[in-house]
TrEMBL record:
It comes from Drosophila hystricosa. Keywords: Aminoacyl-tRNA synthetase, ATP-binding, Ligase, Nucleotide-binding, Protein biosynthesis. One of its GO terms (biological process) is aspartyl-tRNA aminoacylation. Residues 1-168 form the Aminoacyl-transfer RNA synthetases class-II family profile domain. This is CG31739-like protein. GO terms for cellular component: mitochondrion. PROSITE patterns: AA_TRNA_LIGASE_II. The keyword Ligase applies. One of its GO terms (molecular function) is ATP binding. Pfam families: tRNA-synt_2. The lineage of its organism: Eukaryota, Metazoa, Ecdysozoa, Arthropoda, Hexapoda. It comes from the Eukaryota.
Length: 168
């Protein structure tokens, strides 16, 4: 069931981005020379001693080349690899919808993602409520103590400094 759902959502994303918004889907390499910065890379040795490739962390470099080459609307369903310590919110291999758009704003990108998800969302599931709630980094840290809060449960931090000061 989940594989069919995933397949249908990705197909609808492609349909929306290509047919309605004029995006170009490009498959970028997943095996490339090592690049500095970012997460740890999975290193892949070659037959030539001392020469290595790496599995890409994201298609960042490639999409920058596409943008400078005149592709002003790009996307791909990208496989990414990061050689990091495993945690519940970190996986060594994952798939992401990678989108790049020339001359746009953060708000335009957020609206594009909302519209793409709304178009792609299966009709048999509850309708997505857009626009999605937005909170600042400061608000996330103050209210949830985390920059990736799970807001489904409403567990908020409460500053009890004043109460403690009065109790002394």
């Amino acid at each position: 069931h989940n594989l069919r759902l995933r397949s249908a959502v990705i197909m609808r994303m492609r349909e929306y981005l290509i047919n309605y918004l004029g995006f170009v889907e490009v498959e970028t390499p997943t095996l490339f020379r090592r690049t500095p910065g970012g997460a740890q890379e999975f290193v892949v040795p070659t037959r030539k001693a001392g020469h290595f490739y790496s599995l890409v962390q994201s298609p960042q470099q490639f999409k920058q080349m596409l943008m400078s080459g005149g592709i002003d609307r790009y996307f791909q369903v990208a496989r990414c690899y990061r050689d990091e310590a495993t945690r519940p919110d970190r996986q060594p291999e994952f798939t992401q919808l990678d989108i790049e758009l020339s001359f746009t704003s953060r708000d335009d990108i957020m609206q594009l993602i909302e519209e793409t998800l709304r178009y792609s969302w299966p009709k048999h599931l509850p309708k997505l409520q857009t626009p999605f709630r937005r909170i600042t980094y400061e608000e996330a840290m103050e209210k949830y103590g985390n920059d990736k809060p799970d807001t489904r449960f409403g567990f908020l931090l409460n500053n009890v400094s004043e109460i403690i000061e009065k109790s002394e």
